[in-house]
Amino acid sequence: MNQVIDRTLRLEKLTAEVFAPFGDVIEAAGAGSFDFNRGMARRFHDLARTEATGDGRIGVSIGRAQPYRLPLALDMVERHPLGSQAFVPLGRDPFVVIVAPDEGGHPGRPRAFVTAPGQGVNYLRNVWHGVLTPLDRPADFLIVDRIGTGVNLEEHRFEEPWAVVA
């Protein structure tokens, strides 16, 4: 007998604890911070577990993403088998973060989060995730990820989309 699956994903508050299996929340917080420049600046140190395999290196880029509106039809997720991928907004607007556990090489039930102002994320290597999803207006992001040879993108399209709602 076919079981009906509720394909609605309600946005959850993004916290470091709940996001830990998928990666890291990047924000100006944490016990590993310290002052520098004679006390005129503070460093929030080592906020993401960056990963790169093979001949890859960690690169820093800027991406500009167009806005989405809710409800959002989630029909595709992707993952990167050769390295982690971090996105840190260069503004204070929230954005949607979608992740899914791996279930035998395919994504399981996704989860959808909304960031607080100033939060970014680092997806661990091989974590299924959605695309950059700012809300309301275009947004720029600092991107930290692996640059190198090899196929570092795998996409999965869902047979039926998931509905992401507030």
List keywords for this structure.
166 residues, mainly beta, 5-stranded mixed beta sheet, 5-stranded antiparallel beta sheet, globular
Topology overview:
Blueprint lengths: L7 E3 L1 E2 L2 H4 L3 E4 L6 E4 L4 E4 L12 E9 L6 E8 L5 E5 L5 E6 L1 E2 L2 E2 L3 E4 L5 E4 L4 E2 L3 E2 L4 E9 L6 E12 L1
Parallel strand pairs: 1-17, 2-12
Antiparallel strand pairs: 3-13, 4-5, 6-16, 7-17, 8-13, 8-16, 9-12, 9-14, 9-15, 10-11
Could you characterize what this model shows?
The protein has 166 residues and is an all-beta fold. The chain has one helix and 17 strands. The chain has one helix at 16-19; strands at residues 8-10, 12-13, 23-26, 33-36, 41-44, 57-65, 72-79, 85-89, 95-100, 102-103, 106-107, 111-114, 120-123, 128-129, 133-134, 139-147, 154-165. The strands form five sheets. Strands 2, 9, 12, 14 and 15 form a five-stranded mixed beta sheet that branches. The protein has a five-stranded antiparallel beta sheet with strand order 3-13-8-16-6, with no helix packed on it. The protein is globular.
